[in-house]
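Researcher: Next sequence.
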Amino acid sequence: MVPFLAAILTFVAAAVASALAILLSGGGRGLTPSIAAWSLAVGVLAGVGAFVHTRRLPADLHRPARRPSPWAWLVFAAFALFALRSFCWLVYEDGAHDGYKPRLAVGNVNNLGDMSLHMQYTRDFANGARWWPEHPQASGYTMRYYPGMDMFQALPLTLGADELPALVWVGLAGSLLSLLALYRWGGSFAVAGFLFAGGLAGFRWFRTEAFIDFQARMAWKSLPLAIFVTQRPFLFALPAGLLLLTHWREKFFSGPPPIDPATGKRLAWNQRGLIPFWVEWLLYAVMPAFHVFAFVFLSVLLGGWFAGYFARTRMRWHLLTLVGAAFLPAAGLVYLMTDHFHAGSNVKFHPGWMIDDHDLTHLWLTRHLPGLGFWVDNFGLFAFLGPALWCLCAYVAGRALVLWSDDDATANRRYSPLDRERDAAVAFVLPAGLMFVAACLWLFAPWAWDNTKLMIWCYLAALPFVWEQFLRPLTVGWRAPVVALLFFSGAASLAGGLGKPDPRLGLIDTAELDSVRFMVRDLPPEGRFAAMPDYNHPLVYCGRKVAMGFDGHLHSQGIDYGPLARDLETLLRGNSGWREAAARLQVKYVFWGRRELARYPDSTLPWANPDEPVAAGDYGTIYEIKPDATPR
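Model: Next structure:
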């Protein structure tokens, strides 16, 4: 399991790292078929090397293979159904029926806005965007989103692969890797904890007797539906982050090195762990390119361990070597993604997370028991188990500090398996709990809900220890109802969210998209368009740069889009000063179609010369803004 995980994740990380290195060192060059082929070849070689090297590590000799129980197979089946339903209908061509024209549609309502964004980024990269790329949805800004997964998606597209099948297969592969990583991290309980995360909303099924996504209006939404399917960077970040967590627990908290049966000697320090150091470094160093929140969580965890009472000298040297070697590439990626550190900070004090969201007052406990009711409604039994586990770990850490401050006691202390298990719980749960509290007190993104992208890591890090400390010691008669209380609500919500595709989830008519693709096929990819800011605009699906995109996307990335909106309004309405507005927006073309006509019906069209359109079709006309054009 681990060699397969390491090989595929190393392949993805090395391919993206190779492409980024070539593009960033090439003086602004764009992605080409030769660069894409070379990057994929480097990824394949690195993946094969990771597989061979990982298989040679004898780190698992002391741990017998875990055979899945019938409960585990049931959870696996549920995960497989979720992945097949979610990604086979991720984006699909919906045929004409019930009065609808043939169109692109999504199977998950949460993807209505997000999928077009990822498709635009991917197409923009594949079209040959110069690196570090300009922001395709905001004139005057550089890319402020982690590009790793979209870059990987662009590599096969540059070589001629079909876009929609590539989206499906990458999603299914990421699902398989995530399932294996979750199981290796915390067994079937961790898989179920991710798949069925929820609070109390799903218990309304007993009243409605209908499966719907009961958590759609909750703060703590269904993690598979709201994050995994919609946030494509998680397809890499989730399995890679969990593999690193599993490796570090094995390396640092598994007690004395096991004995190699071939030699009869204990393994050396560098032979401990599940993956070789170079794979560990690669996955950690490139993580900012895939998901900044995952990188922040992993880094805080490593920093806490370095200062922890359980850290030995060799452990500290390993952490220093890992972080030191990853510092330059990781810091360089953060430097580029923050517009050379010019992007304003999104961190602000906001205690209570989403507790003041008026849309959540429909919850019974939230309405009748202010404060505590919000957390119980959203997290259910975890609202009590999580704090109890953190307090237990804090108590263990306090006792250990007293013990380790006594030199005589330290010299005579036997490092038992129970001590190792408790040290591991302290090492993971204490910093994870503090980060969860920090996410409840401060906002780390403009949207409060985006804090979930950090909170999910705190939740996943604690799941194995909830099982080990609270549930595994119980008898089956007690354990079964507790597990049912933990997961029934999330299971009901997940089942409701995976229902029949909703015909209202259409994106864009395929005839319109094909027509616009034909219109822009010969235009330079760096040319920026003025068009109505709509996440379903055909230019977005063509990967073309627009003066201003959907305001929700820009707000989530901390971009002040007010000046862009005013200049775009001036330009498309043809108001006085439109030429200066076009210059500020760096616009080369104006797209005028049915969306623009409906939004700006009183436009004077001063840039529209009917005798010289750049391109025209059934769904719109493209005009070029020329310096010598004379307003009408």
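Model: The mean pLDDT is 87. Strands lie at 91-94, 103-106, 348-349, 442-443, 506-509, 528-530, 545-546, 589-593, 615-617, 620-624.
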